[in-house]
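Deliverable D5.2: sample structural annotation.
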Amino acid sequence: MAEVKNNKRRSFLQLSTISLGAVGTAAFIWPFLKSMNPAEDTLALGSTEVNIADIEEGQGITVKWRGKPVFIRKRTQQEISEAKTVNLEDLKDPAIDDDRVKKDEWLVLVGICTHLGCVPLGQKITDMKGEYNGWYCPCHGSHYDSSGRIRKGPAPTNLAVPPYSFINDTTIKIG
């Protein structure tokens, strides 16, 4: 009987020691893991405001947001109608144009090809815009339409739409 009590006591001590060691290890590692996250002040600056007053119809600009290029394009009526009349069955990654824009004439996209992370051409008037009048990634031949949807090539998904909002008629806040 004394032996059973000792076994119970030994089991309790082992379990207590292991538990205390696990808690101590977690408390020791936590500051290191937390230091790998961006600082809170850096995250607070994770948004940018862009003045869009001087952008002409059919013109696009590129701005940086969190180290990534963001394409802002003021679409023409032709580009808008092309984007709205696409048959969703023809799309690799089906998405309705209305789900990708907040105002029909303004398209805001993260300018990184979803295949291997290249920056597609199409922002400048002189750039090749691909077969669908949007963007073209010459590295591997991905073609995007005027809504940033993948239409041809190896890219698996559409160009991403970052979180953005209109502060007023001439300013967009990204992030």
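Annotation notes: The two ends are 68 Å apart (CA to CA). The helical segments are 2-35, 40-44, 77-84, 97-100.
The annotation will be released with the project's public dataset once the embargo ends.
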